[in-house]
Amino acid sequence: MSRAPITKAGSERLRAELERLKSVDRPRIIAAIAEARAHGDLKENAEYHAARDQQSFTEGRIGELEAALSTAEVIDVSRLNAGNKVVFGAIVDLEEEDSGAAVTYQIVGDLEADIKRQLIAVSSPIARALIGKNAGDSFEFTAPNGVKHYEIIGVRYE
């Protein structure tokens, strides 16, 4: 079985989410189910069904996080010394060659990816195009809205 890479910071975030799900959300949902049961007929009790749905989702997420964290290979990005080469964990400053727009991404594990926080999955098309390149290199990749051309302005590890 291959071990999926994850950054140390991503591992800590996911462990915090797991702890919150187990210690805060799970007891709250159990209490909500108990309260809904006290209202009587469960067939037509919307509160009960909503709480059970929430319980199912929460237990599924707990299982997903436990499985992923148990097989993940935690990589401390601050200890990497790849210089200007892009590898897993790199924070990469890019400039789109057509528009001049600047963007910064960090290449992280699939489970911790979050485009809103500029965390891109190592398996994403742009990350696959970046891996192995150096600062100053230009590259292209196929995005959903067409081919994009970027120049790597800087690479750092924090």
Task: Tell me about this structure.
- The radius of gyration is 21 Å and the shape is elongated.
- Helix 1 runs antiparallel to helix 2 (46-71).
- The protein has 158 residues and is of the alpha/beta class.
- The protein has 2 domains: 5-75, Helix Hairpins (Orthogonal Bundle); 77-156, Chitinase A, domain 3 (Roll).
- It has 3 helices and 7 strands.
- The strands form 2 sheets. A 5-stranded mixed sheet has the order 5-4-3-7-6.
- The two termini are 29 Å apart.
- Helices cover 40% and strands 25% of the residues.
Instruction: Give the tally of β-strands.
Output: 7
The CATH class assignment of the largest domain is Alpha Beta
The number of helical segments is 3
Report mean pLDDT, rounded to a whole number. 89
Summarize the entry for a quick read.
The chain has 158 residues and is of the alpha/beta class. The chain is built from 3 helices and 7 strands. The chain folds into 2 domains: 5-75, Transcription elongation factor, GreA/GreB, N-terminal domain (Helix Hairpins), CATH 1.10.287; 77-156, Roll (Chitinase A, domain 3).
